From TrEMBL:
Domain (Era-type G) ranges: 110-334
Domain of life per record: Eukaryota
Spans annotated as G1: 118-125
Name of this chain's protein: GTPase Era, mitochondrial
Renumbered residue ranges of the record's region G5: 312-314
A Pfam family this chain is assigned to: MMR_HSR1
Length: 378
């Protein structure tokens, strides 16, 4: 390795488990190989300062049992050496190096964390992919394609939008019945806690789901009333009668958007609608209407505190561009968390695993793909 590298190395561990500190170095520390921990945990434990731009080593010892070496420079950079050199190690090393790189933020940076939540198969991952401009998250026509919380980074000018894609909100009984991962119950709720804005997605092409907000979504909104939320009606291209979208909006928002009451009126006056004959009848109608509104609020199937409502199709770039502009306008002054070149915190192995799951869900019928155990050899 050279004398300079030997003197600067701070920890050495052999594959047999024996650990030691090099001569002249300080006390050793316990190190978990990066392939066994998530990038988020990796950043929390080691990302204490700006990362070095030094490339990964390209030469390994060709004889004996090579050690695993972690070299920490004064700038907290890290170089990881594996016993075997393969493409996975190279890609993982490049991803970790990029995540550790110090954000190249401008003089006046702005940032916004957006949590995308909703019922399963509402189009959350499709929207996130369209916002990022690339296929980063797995998408299929079956429910529960997304099994874990995933992060995407969109950097536009001086603004960084952090998209938090979550699994569809579901219940404990459904997870036990279908033997799904526990992350489907934990990740959406934990993600909302760190978000600056919630995006609630509803599939308006599903007539059974667009008549009311999912109960788990309502629970999530009610437990975080201080976090701003917007309603996104997705798949509007599949709705033939567009006037239904106004009725759906009125139901899902309880007739309230950003503190203002909305009214949906027909464009064509029905033949049975006549003007009240006198003031007495008009006052009775007003009282009846007010009482009806109070009763409807008690039985409301929506959330009356949405800040805005968007009607779009996740596969339409122009529609999504409008939502992206809205996110940028809502970003607040703050430091960036990632370098502008970062697109996601997922490792290449995670992305490949999710893509394989996507194809299994698309090609295998009914419940078969949910009973398949997926193994990624390393």
């Amino acid at each position: 390795f050279g004398s300079a590298q030997k003197q600067s190395a701070s920890w050495v561990r052999s594959p047999r488990g024996a650990s030691r500190s090099p001569e002249g170095a300080g006390k050793g520390f316990v190190f978990v190989p990066a392939c066994f921990i998530t990038s988020e945990a990796f950043l929390r434990s080691l990302g204490k300062g700006p990362a070095s731009q030094a490339p990964l080593p390209s030469v390994l010892p060709d004889s004996g049992d090579p050690p695993i070496i972690c070299h920490l420079s004064p700038t907290a950079a890290i170089c990881l050496w594996w016993p075997a050199v393969d493409s996975r190690c190279v890609l993982l090393g490049e991803q970790l190096s990029l995540l550790l790189r110090h954000p190249d933020q401008p003089a006046h940076p702005k940032v916004l964390k957006v949590a995308v939540i909703g019922a399963p198969n509402a189009g959350k991952s499709t929207l996130s992919n369209q916002l990022l401009g690339r296929k980063v998250f797995a998408v299929s026509r079956k429910v529960h394609t997304t099994r874990n919380r995933a992060l995407g980074v969109l950097t536009e000018g001086d603004t960084q939008i952090i998209l938090l894609d979550t699994p569809g909100l579901t219940t404990v009984s459904k997870v036990k019945r279908h033997q799904l991962e526990k992350s489907l119950l934990v990740d959406p709720w934990n993600t909302v806690k760190e978000a600056d804005l919630m995006v609630v997605m509803v599939d308006v092409s599903d007539r059974w789901m667009c008549g009311r907000l999912d109960m788990e979504v309502l629970k999530c909104l009610s437990q975080h009333p201080d976090t701003p939320a917007i309603l996104v009606l997705n798949k509007v291209d599949k709705v033939k009668a567009k006037d239904r979208l106004l009725d759906i909006t009125a139901v899902l928002t309880c007739g309230m958007v950003n503190g203002c009451r909305i009214r949906v009126r027909p464009v064509i006056k029905p033949p049975w609608a006549t003007k009240p004959p006198d003031n007495h009848s008009a006052s009775l109608d007003e009282e009846t209407h007010a009482e009806t509104e109070r009763c409807s609020e008690l039985n409301c199937q929506g959330w009356p505190h949405f800040k805005d409502v968007f009607m779009l199709s996740s596969v339409d770039r122009e529609d999504v561009e409008t939502l992206k502009t809205y996110f940028i306008s809502k970003a607040k002054t703050g430091s960036w968390e990632y370098h502008s070149e970062v697109l996601t915190d997922q490792s290449p192995e995670d992305i490949c695993t999710n893509l394989v799951r996507e194809k299994l869900l698309e090609c295998l019928p009914q419940e078969v793909p949910y009973s398949v155990t997926q193994v990624t050899p390393v």
